[in-house]
Amino acid sequence: MKWPGVITKIHPSRKTWRRAISQRLPLFNDNASPARAAPARKDNDMTEQQHDESKLERVIRKIKRCLALSKSSNENEAATAMRQAQALMREYRLTELDVRLSDVDEVQSEKSRANRRPTWDRHLSGIVAKVFGCRPLSYRHWCDASGRMVERALIVGVTPAPQIAMYAYETLLAKLTQARREYVAQVRSGKSRSTYSPETAGDHFAIAWVSVVHSKIQELVPRGEEDPAIEQRSTGRDLVQVESQDNALIEQYLAGREIGKQRKARPLELDMAAQIAGMLAGHKVQLHPGLATGRETQMQLSGA
């Protein structure tokens, strides 16, 4: 299995991305000479800039509504909506790709580590992101609060998928971290036996835990052939096409970022006792779909 790549250059936020569209400037202007650097903005300049970004967001939302109406069965209504969308795109120098890319978002985990994220942590974020049709990455950057380099999970996808995926990942991570801590304590106290050190045994426990929970997450996310409501609106081919389009948008969004190559996981010979303990603990985890709010879905956990 390949682990997520590591982003070594700071990602621009969605706000920075929208500003780049409005100004038609590159996201990373590393080659600008000091002589050409923009002067410091005053407060009124910043306010004007914020207004421009807010206006751009409203324009993009209006274009999206027009594009949706352009698919109407009423030919006159569809033609009028398409003309309005095209006029707005010309006026604000937006392309159809700009409009579609506005749906792509990146979400950083609140949990950071001073060292490289362990294998089981990367494995967890990887499977969760992929189940929700997102791209899992590790984001390494300087943290002013701690005064050192840190690494955290980052998930990129078409909204609202990355937000849902990050919520699921962080919820599962908290549960897994607690279960691993308890198992390590058992190994240290001699209640659980292992031929490895307590920390290594804990890693093996966590890897097995993730492998079991993976199937539970897949069962939780509805697919076209499993959800009658989805099946009535689309076919399996439609779903594949949507996933392909989303993947293309994600790749376009990440184009130009400095992303390290994915590393192949080295084969691990797991401690049998730790593996069994991790699988048993994973089987006890119960995932419950929460009440849906719009397109958002929440998850609750119970069990060990």
UniProtKB/TrEMBL annotation:
<keyword id="KW-0418">Kinase</keyword>
<dbReference type="InterPro" id="IPR055592">
    <property type="entry name" value="DUF7168"/>
</dbReference>
<feature type="compositionally biased region" description="Basic and acidic residues">
    <location>
        <begin position="40"/>
        <end position="55"/>
    </location>
</feature>
<dbReference type="Pfam" id="PF23771">
    <property type="entry name" value="DUF7168"/>
</dbReference>
<feature type="region of interest" description="Disordered">
    <location>
        <begin position="28"/>
        <end position="55"/>
    </location>
</feature>
<dbReference type="InterPro" id="IPR024498">
    <property type="entry name" value="DUF2786"/>
</dbReference>
<feature type="domain" description="DUF7168">
    <location>
        <begin position="98"/>
        <end position="237"/>
    </location>
</feature>
<feature type="domain" description="DUF2786">
    <location>
        <begin position="58"/>
        <end position="95"/>
    </location>
</feature>
<dbReference type="Pfam" id="PF10979">
    <property type="entry name" value="DUF2786"/>
</dbReference>
<protein>
    <submittedName>
        <fullName>Hybrid sensor histidine kinase/response regulator</fullName>
    </submittedName>
</protein>
<keyword id="KW-0808">Transferase</keyword>
<dbReference type="GO" id="GO:0016301">
    <property type="term" value="F:kinase activity"/>
</dbReference>
